[in-house]
Backbone:
């Protein structure tokens, strides 16, 4: 059976949101951020924007590519760049995964 590529946060408590960033070095995960904040302190939409911003900050994308991640699919020039487009709170609520 294939292992999922996510871990369940054992420290997450009810009413919290977990932010975790893992960077892989030679196929080994290195934790760059692991923070818990009350759900009441950050809206879900803002948490998604933060997660995308965090991933962009740690990505090799340049300024033009970063801008294109915020473009809508309307129009063809310049083309939009899909980046961290999927999110889920499975299997635990309060954890957004991209």
Residues:
């Amino acid at each position: 059976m294939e292992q999922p590529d996510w871990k369940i946060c054992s420290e997450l408590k009810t009413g919290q949101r977990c932010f975790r960033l893992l960077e892989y070095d030679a196929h080994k995960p290195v934790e760059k951020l692991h923070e818990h904040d009350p759900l009441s302190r950050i809206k879900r939409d803002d948490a998604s924007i933060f997660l995308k911003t965090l991933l962009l900050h740690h990505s090799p994308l340049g300024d033009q590519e970063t801008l294109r991640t915020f473009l809508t699919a309307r129009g063809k020039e310049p083309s939009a760049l899909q980046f961290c487009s999927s999110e889920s709170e499975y299997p635990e609520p309060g954890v957004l995964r991209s």
